Amino acid sequence: DVDLGQLEQESCLDGWEFSQDVYLSTIVTEQDSGAYNAMKNRMGRKPALCLPAQWNLVCEDDWKAPLTISLFFVGVLLGSFISGQLSDRFGRKNVLFVTMGMQTGFSFLQIFSKNFEMFVVLFVLVGMGQISNYVAAFVLGTEILGKSVRIIFSTLGVCIFYAFGYMVLPLFAYFIRDWRMLLVALTMPGVLCVALWWFIPESPRWLISQGRFEEAEVIIRKAAKANGIVVPSTIFDPSE
């Protein structure tokens, strides 16, 4: 019998050749320019997607691939700690759009990652942005929507669109087999959200808590007009 644990193991000195039947490029097979050139000089020829020319995510470094997901959720954890505090300090709408920009921007910057370390640092920031805009949007929605819609929004509304995004993701990945181009496609919808700034109001509850009564009154009157409701003048009476 052979005890495989006693066998001498050799690292991937000459690298690996990766199949491109399914994906043209992933972060596992991504080229690191410095390592690639070093391997090219040592071998005297152009390597064919070999590991030393990649981000070293197989063999003794195969733990790095799942680590990316773990670090993403570290970002989610950090964002969940600070997002509520930020929205209380700077407003629900401001934090919502800033963190949407943060998620979109850092996701786009991942396209230009030169190495694994740069990729995962940006991924942590993406995680922080994702959970922060989720929390800010949830709070903003529950504060500006009426009672009849609030329950639907806080249960089905948020979850359905969240699930829809994950349903569409495999479709994008099916047609786009290069991870950089896939990130481009996934970040572009985030740019379209900029237009929502002019349609989503700040939370009147938050404005009132900050003593910004006139701004809150404008939003409430506009909402009342859109819903065909006459607002009782007493709710704007400072003595009340």
From TrEMBL:
<keyword id="KW-0812">Transmembrane</keyword>
<protein>
    <submittedName>
        <fullName>SLC22A5 isoform 9</fullName>
    </submittedName>
</protein>
<dbReference type="GO" id="GO:0022857">
    <property type="term" value="F:transmembrane transporter activity"/>
</dbReference>
<keyword id="KW-0472">Membrane</keyword>
<dbReference type="InterPro" id="IPR005828">
    <property type="entry name" value="MFS_sugar_transport-like"/>
</dbReference>
<dbReference type="Pfam" id="PF00083">
    <property type="entry name" value="Sugar_tr"/>
</dbReference>
<dbReference type="InterPro" id="IPR020846">
    <property type="entry name" value="MFS_dom"/>
</dbReference>
<feature type="transmembrane region" description="Helical">
    <location>
        <begin position="118"/>
        <end position="140"/>
    </location>
</feature>
<keyword id="KW-1133">Transmembrane helix</keyword>
<dbReference type="InterPro" id="IPR005829">
    <property type="entry name" value="Sugar_transporter_CS"/>
</dbReference>
<dbReference type="GO" id="GO:0005886">
    <property type="term" value="C:plasma membrane"/>
</dbReference>
<feature type="transmembrane region" description="Helical">
    <location>
        <begin position="95"/>
        <end position="112"/>
    </location>
</feature>
<feature type="transmembrane region" description="Helical">
    <location>
        <begin position="152"/>
        <end position="176"/>
    </location>
</feature>
<feature type="transmembrane region" description="Helical">
    <location>
        <begin position="65"/>
        <end position="83"/>
    </location>
</feature>
<feature type="domain" description="Major facilitator superfamily (MFS) profile">
    <location>
        <begin position="1"/>
        <end position="240"/>
    </location>
</feature>
<dbReference type="InterPro" id="IPR036259">
    <property type="entry name" value="MFS_trans_sf"/>
</dbReference>
<feature type="transmembrane region" description="Helical">
    <location>
        <begin position="182"/>
        <end position="200"/>
    </location>
</feature>
